Amino acid sequence: MISPSSLTRRLKTPSLLSVDSKEQEPGCATFEVRNPSTGELLARLPDMGAGEAAAAIDRAEVAFVAWKSLTARARSNLIRRWYELIHENAEDLAAILTAEMGKPLDEARSEVSHAAAYIQWYAEEANRIYGETIPASSEDRRLFVLRQPVGVVGAITPWNFPASMVARKIAPALAAGCTVVLKPAEQTPLVAAAMVTLAREAGVPQGVVEIVYASEGDAIGREFCSNPKVRKISFTGSTEVGRILMRQCADQIKKVSFELGGNAPFIVFDDADIDAAVEGAIQAKFRNGGQTCVSANRLYAQSKVHDEFAEKFAARARKLAVGDGFDPESRIGPLIDRHLLAKVEYHVADAIQKGGLIHCGGRRYHESTFFEPTVLTNVTSDMAVAREETFGPLAAIIRFDDADDVVRQANDTIYGLAAYFFATDHRRVWRVAEALEYGMVGINTGRMSSEAAPFGGWKQSGVGREGSRHGMDEYLEMKYVCLAGL
């Protein structure tokens, strides 16, 4: 059901764009996937619903029996082969990603590399699912703890990092012995489909990873949450949708892990290396055009260094070329859709109305969804840009005086995903790192994601962790065994 497009001609392995639609009846509805940069039609996919999702869940439940029974080494070898195929096809995967999401090709390559790193990590972690022995209180008993796979997992991934999110959910699930039904975002399903194709080419059996496509996720999400064969939901997306899924899972007390919204503070203290802080802020704010859950959303600069930081940061932002992701000069791609464009424009207009000043940018490009990298100063806490997650190339700089007060301001949000700060005084570094109410804190860096570290948030930014050895726990159940009569 893939349409002819320039993307197909660009790929070395066009078969990566194949779509398994065996559960879709002839003549049923389809939906379109378009390049947000050019509007080009990339694909028409089957628009599936609860029935197709239920059938995929049934196949995953059947496959679970054999998959969980494999040795850890056997699962590890298959996941390792999947990693190798991702690596071998990295350029094609990056091209698919850029075409459907719009991000610059270099960023797409980096994301595919990051996705592969997660798969490699969990290929290794598959061999490290250890149990426990517990000293017994009597001689005729032996006490053990086993760790066993949860079962069928319903995974829902977002559009902004469609390759790495697939890897972060599927790889640990497979390593633990679970099977997965994946619903990728409707804007970016093609790289997910390509990665599932490569998993099957690696030898992962049919049914172990199933994929369902849909133009909207409500019906699929309800099926995941209500179907008792699904034992766990893993979701990355907005806090609003996370609340809905949690409510829908409540009747069955279903195991969940959610990576939700953020409102990340980025604090520049007066003892910071300002040039390093500028570079860190460029990374934390403008990577993926600001369309990341860990994007720096509120930039705080202490009064002594505020003007220097703002001027240097705006100067760097002006140099970020905006354009099609396949243009090697581009550093900022399009926003994913007009809904997000409208939100960015509203945040700019609201800030200006309330006294904010534009240092650079502030406008869209003609009728497209491209938006100029924008820097605002004279920002106050009553502006929408300081209270809401923007999800675009808009940086709002807030002046502060007192170090303790800025930590209070940084924590004054329902979110607690990521925070950043730049400082050199070690006493300040430790005090602030411990005081920030966030699941992840970057100190003197604008990038901190690693497959070896736990990714996740506090408060209403999520439940559970992805990545690291802790990410395996999300897909395992603990069983205490008491053996008596010895």
From TrEMBL:
Keyword line: Oxidoreductase, Plasmid
InterPro entries: Ald_DH/histidinol_DH, Ald_DH_C, Ald_DH_CS_GLU, Ald_DH_N, Aldehyde_DH_dom, Aldehyde_DH_Superfamily, Succ_semiAld_DH
Pfam families linked to this entry: Aldedh (PF00171)
A biological process from GO: gamma-aminobutyric acid catabolic process
Residues annotated as domain Aldehyde dehydrogenase: 29-481
Name of this protein: Succinate-semialdehyde dehydrogenase (NADP(+)) 4
Organism: Rhizobium gallicum bv. gallicum R602sp
Regions that span the bilayer: none
GO MF annotation list: succinate-semialdehyde dehydrogenase (NAD+) activity; succinate-semialdehyde dehydrogenase (NADP+) activity
EC number(s) reported in the record: 1.2.1.79
Oxidoreductase keyword on record: yes
Enzyme class, first EC level, given as a word: oxidoreductase
Active site: 259
Family under the similarity heading: Belongs to the aldehyde dehydrogenase family.
